[in-house]
Amino acid sequence: MCTRWTKVILAPLRMTQPSWFVYNLNVARISVVINTLNEEKNLPRALNSVKKLADEIIVVDMESTDKTCEIAKKFGAKVFLHKPTGYVEPARNFAISKATGDWILVLDADEEVPLALSRELREIPLRRDLADFYRLPRKNIVFDKWLQHSRWWPDYNVRFFKKGAVVWLDTIHSVPHTEGEGADVPPEEELAIIHYNYNSVSDYLTRMLRYTEVQAKDLAKKGYKFSWIDLIQKPMGEFLSRFFAGEGYKDGVHGLVLALLQAFSEMIVVVRVWEAQGFKNVGLGKTELDQTFAKAEYELDYWMQQSRVRRYSLPQKFLRKLTLRDRRVSGSR
To answer: The domain that contains 145 carries what CATH number?
Structure first.
């Protein structure tokens, strides 16, 4: 382990130090925890980014068939094995239990810690206003573009914490249980984990099929019953929240494509529940069908109007008058 120096704030020479004088010569040990499955392409980048930050690197592998474990060992990581689970959350707590550091940084193999964030994390345990866990922003790179809208930024995740302060649930994409005080690292590009999320459409679809299978099983366990209305409402809600509420239109074609893909993913979850419940033949009532599409049309119209307000700064009262006028004109034809 490399010898580290500690920044000490020197006060004027006095017999008694003032109340604001802060120093800490006991530098906390930081463990970086990474779960892997066939990550030989991504892992070297992740490990290189934390080699000056980590006092210890824990890699928990879920039976990779490539050179993931070999690469991890070459970097000096402690490697442990865990049975494949289809998603990372069940193996996270196991990985954290193997760490011996005072502080834990949870990192995915397809992520990278920039130098500025590395310095920030090294300094956090030295501060007087210390929290028990920290949410870190993530810079998501999807199809070769940093998505700055579409609910993909700042994409805060609890990733840095005192050991024992955070526990993950076993459900997919779950928010971890935390204890104590929390804080956010500022949402600045240089302080954000870089997440090389989806590299291709095939990559997206492959993971979508895996995730939706798990999500459908979780819904079934919670007692969810298939409803054909959800085939319309859930994808529509996801698209509107990404493209309009999340201002995905500001991400251009990337924002549109990702909103559509996320909506498609929501639909597949519902279809998988239908499949698990035996592809039961359900009729489509005309009244329900009309009401469902009318609601979807209303919500789409609402968000289109809202996006005009945001983009062009039109007074909402004026815009509402225009909308009512258009409807009166349409009704008189």
So the answer is: 3.90.550.10
What value does the mean pLDDT of the chain take?
A: 86
Taking only the tens place, the pLDDT of each residue in 149-190 is 999 999 999 999 999 999 998 877 778 999 999 999 999 999
What element of type H or E holds 96? Answer: helix 89-97
Give backbone dihedrals phi and psi of 298, rounded to 5 degrees, phi first: -60, -45
Q: Is residue 60 part of a domain?
A: yes
Count of alpha carbons within 13 angstroms of residue 209, beta-carbon side: 5
DSSP codes of every residue in 216-263: HHHHHHTT----TTHHHHHHHHHHHIIIIIT-GGGGHHHHHHHHHHHH
Q: Tell me the pTM.
A: 0.81
How many domains does the structure of the chain reveal?
2
Domain co-membership, 221 together with 173: no
pLDDT in tens, 215-269: 999 999 999 999 999 999 999 999 999 999 999 999 999 999 999 999 999 999 9
Distance CA 136, CA 192 (A): 7
Residues 39 and 187 reside in one and the same domain: yes
- Rounded Cα–Cα distance for residues 105 and 161 (Å): 7
Does 318 fall in a domain?
A: no
One domain, residues 301 and 283: yes
Are 218 and 253 within one domain?
yes
Which one-letter DSSP state was computed for residue 124? G
For residue 222, the enclosing domain spans 200-313
